[in-house]
Amino acid sequence: MSEQKQRSVDPAVLEMVEVAAKHGLPTIWDRLDAQKGQCRFGREGLCCRMCFMGPCRVTEEGKGAQQGICGATAETIVARNLLRHVAGGAAAHSDHGREIVKTLFLAASGDSKAYQVRSPGRMRALAAEFGVPLDGRSDSDVAGELARLFMAEFSKQEGTLLNLQRAPEAQRANWRAAGVTPRGIDREIVTGLHMTTMGVDNDPEHLLLAAARVALADGWGGSMIATDLSDVLFGEPEPLRSAVNLGVLKEDHVNILVHGHEPTLSDVIAAVSRDPQMVAEANAVGAKGINLAGICCTANEILMRHGIPIAGNFLQQELAVMTGAIDLLLVDVQCVFPALARLQECFHTKVVSTSPKAKFPGAEHIEFHEEHALDCARRIVRMAIDSFRRRDPAKVRIPKVHERLVAGFTTQVVFRILGGRYRPSYRPLNDGIQAGRLRGVAGVVGCNNPKFTHDECHLALVRELLRNDVLVVQTGCSAIACGKGGLLAPEAAARYAGKGLQEICEAVGIPPVLHLGACVDNSRILTACAEMVKEGGIGDSFDKLPVVGAAPEWMSEKAVAIGMYFVASGISVVIGQPLPVEGSRVVVDFLTRKMREYFGATWSFQPDPIKAAHLMIDHLDRKRAELGLPPPMYEVPYAPQTAEGTPVFAAATVPAPSATS
Ligand code: SF4
Ligand code: MSK
Q1: pLDDT 10s digits, 63-80
Q2: Model confidence over 454-484: pLDDT tens digits?
Q3: Residue with the nearest Cα to atom 6 of ligand 1?
Q4: Which residue among 66, 69, 194 is best mutated to probe the pocket of ligand 1, counting the most ligand atoms within 8 A of its Cβ?
Q5: Ligand 2 pocket check for 556: Cβ under 6 Å
Q6: pLDDT tens-digit readout, 154-196
Q7: Which of 51, 225, 619, 625 is deepest in the core (most CB within 10 A)?
Q8: Dist CA 205 CA 594 (whole Å)
Q9: If we measure between CA atoms, which residue out of 647, 606, 601 comes closest to residue 623?
Q10: Which ligand is nearest to the CA of 74?
């Protein structure tokens, strides 16, 4: 039991881990154990496989080879590897964005029953922002032009991204000076990959600046397009209540679980599963209805817009199947364990893959094309109903654990909530920061990673921030973790927030933790920061704002891209496990110190969530002092790291790379 305790702080997870152990079913933690002694060269970024004279592994330390066969040094290899990770993450987000643009084209054509513009107001506001003429034009006309405008952002060969106009001039000046203003999204990713190919770019700083440029193309390009156009197509989220954790599964219903990242199919599944005809078909096989729930960011997408409950975050995907209650698991792209399809050997669950980009041996592949979305969704829901008939009640064990949450916050919604529908404004937020009721704002985002006790770092870090009057905004699996931990519940302010944050939450009617959506919706943090700057009084650029980011349990390349676009946009970031860069002092120094010279922000690595929270709070307090703002209004007892002489917001504590594994 003590070993299982270390695996998660979530009682539903602990219960299912026990079930898995009892039945000899391997989980992600067992597979991590089987990998014990992970390669140090890989962890520190020192393994190069860019050409087939290699693979080469090097060390800075003088033990073993100090150069690859071609002469590449540790600095070059580490920087190249990091740029490749950023390109991978940016490609994932941006390809998602491209699919959303394609769906907007379809909606604009008027040929689709499944897709229409659900937020014409948001669409027209976007069109006006980007100079698309509106007078006398139909919604479909405007949608078509907007789709063409944004699709061109991917392949743009000349000029820079349109969304950059949303950034403060100081950030744009930084990007120009550093030569990292992103051009077309595809171009930046391709150029980044080219630069890392054998015998191209050797200069670590040049490679790392290219990584910043690729990441900016993601944050201000692919991800931001995905967010904006999803709001146009699927509806602008509004605050709503729902529930989270494995207890949302229903023993007497057909349970369909959607998992991955793209909202295009899951949005239609949400509608079809409520279709009376489908419900009648479910009733006919003995089910009381159809219960839809989600995992990871597909879940966040349909939570935000439909209030569909969430069954769990990244590390819960296979445990959900092990409840024996999932009749069909629908997957699209990103963060899906290849191990899932193998669970079909033990459970009746039908695993269905849908993306032309992602097949899973053993899973049934029903390729999804937006043009046939309704037919595809009906076929899948019927498969789930059929699968329900094969469910073995003796195998069903659903942990009776779930928590209530509030979600559905966006840059625009926060605008309206804070200022009222008739006087939308970020003024109350800026006022709260200026007066010191709020210390600042933190974005806490990212994945789970089995190297950490599941969810523990998210919860500990966010609780510590709340206690210290820091307003928290969240996305991805971190939001799900905090939802399960009760931090997104309506009464969370009273239970967890410091006095100043409580006062703000009560005055303007917001919870202390705002769920902003999926991983691509980290772009909402950029646009919210732009609004804070525009409102004035707390800094005229991102790097001056009392704002900070964190990803305590990150695991994905997408998190590397997100962190990089935050830092390159002037928002300092603290992450749990270090980036795979410890093999090069030059690269560590660039990320944790020198990026401040270029962008006004840095990376920091701190696996202890309380220490990480204190680094973040110190950072906010320093920003406040630089702005001449008063100290926080309410004293909260904690020992700042600075008092112990620990360097503030720098990874100077990262040890020099050690010798071979
Ligand atoms: Fe080795 Fe150089 Fe090839 Fe990398 S590029 S594998 S360091 S020879
Ligand atoms: S799903 S990228 S595990 S947050 Fe977006 Fe969660 Fe990380 Fe995937």
Answers
A1: 789 999 999 999 999 999
A2: 999 999 999 999 999 999 999 999 999 999 9
A3: 54
A4: 69
A5: yes
A6: 999 989 999 999 999 999 999 999 999 999 999 999 999 999 9
A7: 225
A8: 10
A9: 601
A10: 1
